[in-house]
Specification:
Elements lengths: L1 E5 L4 H12 L3 E6 L2 H8 L11 H12 L3 E5 L5 H11 L3 E4 L6 H4 L3 H25 L4 E7 L14 E6 L2 E6 L7 H20 L2 E7 L1 E3 L27 H11 L3 E4 L5 E6 H13 L7 E6 L2 E4 H14 L6 E4 L17 H4 L8 H13 L2 H6 L27
Parallel strand pairs: 1-2, 1-4, 2-3, 4-5, 5-8, 8-12, 9-11, 10-14
Antiparallel strand pairs: 6-7, 11-13
Helix pairs in contact: 1-9, 4-6, 6-7, 8-10, 8-12, 10-12
Bound molecules: nicotinamide-adenine-dinucleotide and sulfoquinovose-uridine-C1,5'-diphosphate.
């Protein structure tokens, strides 16, 4: 199968590219390397020392021969993405190429505008280019569980039946985003749904939970550090479990925000790759817009920290769990129950428990302890939802494109 991956230099994109190539697909990747620049802008780096794309492709070609190709470019440039679609003739397009950090989108007006412009216009260009050059391709778009927010009722899988004034209908489940980043995904959702309706495109909009982990079937940082995918732990780009593990290996207290009852859906990187592969293999009908909730299990962020502490202590790490003032405006205790049955129906089976994955992650990160320690100052949360201010720590250029 010909698969186009937008955002192939990223955490999930690189892992997915290797896996799909390993499975015999022809993979073409696109990236503008903005993630490398934005992480540098906020004064951090990936704990895993990621190679340049040139070196990555060189190593990958030796393993997967001609299965993997790469084009540098920006999908907010319509001509660029249209040319890629013309030359690649994809059957599936996995769109991961967006600015993915909620805190980054809350820094100030410029960062919020960049996030929404990059994400919404990039996706809009892709939809027009698909209409013109790849109308039969299957768009697999990475949305987020955060589109739904934390409503006081169970979260349905995209749509739910409602009754109002005596009439019943199947309608889109309400979206309550919690940051300008999450809002950009909601805007994408509406644009994709509309494009499927008016142009007969087909799409799976994936509401993915928080992804964690360092390994996949193709990536093992302890055995082959040159093939690592990125792993961020700073307060802007690092996500909860990944941050806790990085904090644990350097003896930094684990940073639980506020009361710590915030509950989210999580899944291991290797299982996110499993789900995205399954979705590629199972396209919807032409004109169909469908939504999959992609999570394994739900946890609150305090129990997660306690589990990291338990596994870390088995490795003789001294770990303290701290509740720090919450930089975000969010519910700290709330109902959270998610319906997620579509992927299981397609055959998704989670492969590792949280504890097994944490065990591997801590071993891998101990190998990069020096790199985490060197950027320890980027760990403590400084970006707030209230006044949005944060001090830009590096002199990296602001041009992210
Ligand atoms: P990432 O930042 O590591 O990867 C995204 C890649 O897209 C980056 O390499 C970046 O350089 C590239 N990119 C961004 N804008 C681009 C543009 N205009 N043109 C070309 N390339 C561009 O992020 P990730 O963690 O791999 O997440 C991938 C996707 O999944 C994102 O859309 C994110 O919102 C979504 N998601 C991630 C998680 C998670 O926990 N990591 C959870 C839910 C959803
Ligand atoms: N949190 C902590 N301590 C930390 C970091 C985070 O308690 O050190 C808390 C946050 O306050 C929040 C929860 O953990 O309540 C999740 O935060 P996160 O940073 O792990 O995740 P989030 O900002 O929601 O974003 C991440 C990805 C994003 C994706 C989203 C999925 O960066 O791309 O869309 O997870 S979801 O959370 O389901 O919306």
């Amino acid at each position: 199968m010909n698969v186009l991956i937008l955002g192939m230099d990223g955490y999930i994109g690189w892992s997915l590219g290797l896996h799909l190539a390993e499975k015999g697909n022809k993979v073409v990747g696109v990236d503008n390397f903005s993630r490398r620049r934005t992480v540098e802008e906020i004064g951090s780096w990936s704990a895993t020392p990621i190679q340049t794309m040139e070196k990555r492709m060189h190593i990958a070609k030796a393993i997967y021969q001609d299965s993997l190709h790469f084009h540098e470019g920006d999908i907010t440039d319509y001509d660029f993405i249209a040319d890629v679609l013309k030359s690649c003739e994809p059957e599936a397009i996995v769109h991961l190429g967006e600015q993915p950090s909620a805190p980054y989108s809350m820094i100030d007006a410029e960062h919020a505008a960049y996030t929404q412009q990059n994400n919404v216009i990039g996706t809009l260009n892709l939809l027009f280019a698909m209409r013109d050059y790849a109308p039969n391709a299957h768009l697999i778009k990475l949305g987020t569980m955060g589109e739904y927010g934390t409503p006081p009722i169970d979260i349905a899988e995209g749509f739910f039946e409602v009754e109002y004034n005596g009439r019943r209908a199947n309608l889109m489940f309400p979206r309550y985003p919690g940051s300008f980043y999450h809002a950009s995904k909601v805007h994408d959702t509406y644009n994709i749904m509309l494009a499927c309706k008016i142009w007969d495109l087909r799409s799976t909009d994936v509401m993915q939970g928080v992804v964690y982990g360092t390994r996949t079937h193709e990536i093992n940082p302890s055995e082959n550090p040159d093939m690592c995918t990125r792993f961020d732990f700073d307060e802007v780009f690092g996500t909860a479990i990944n941050r806790y593990c990085a904090e644990a290996v350097i003896g930094h207290p684990l940073t639980v925000y506020g009361k710590g009852g915030q509950t989210r859906g999580f899944l291991a990187l290797v299982d996110s790759i499993q789900c995205l592969t399954l979705i590629c293999q199972n396209a919807p009908d032409k004109g169909e817009y469908r939504v999959f909730n992609q999570i394994d299990e739900t946890y609150d962020v305090t129990s997660l920290a306690r589990t990291v502490k338990k596994i870390g202590e088995r490795k003789n790490l001294a770990i303290r769990v701290n509740h720090v003032p919450n930089p975000r405006k969010e519910a700290e205790e709330h109902h959270y129950k998610v319906e997620a049955k579509h992927l299981r129906k397609l055959g998704f089976k989670p492969t590792r428990t949280l504890e097994q994955e944490l065990d591997l992650m801590l071993d891998d990160l101990l190998g990069f302890k020096g790199r985490i320690k060197e950027k320890e100052c980027a760990i403590y949360p400084k970006t707030t939802w209230q006044d949005g201010k944060r001090i830009i720590q590096s002199s990296a250029p602001m041009n992210r494109n």
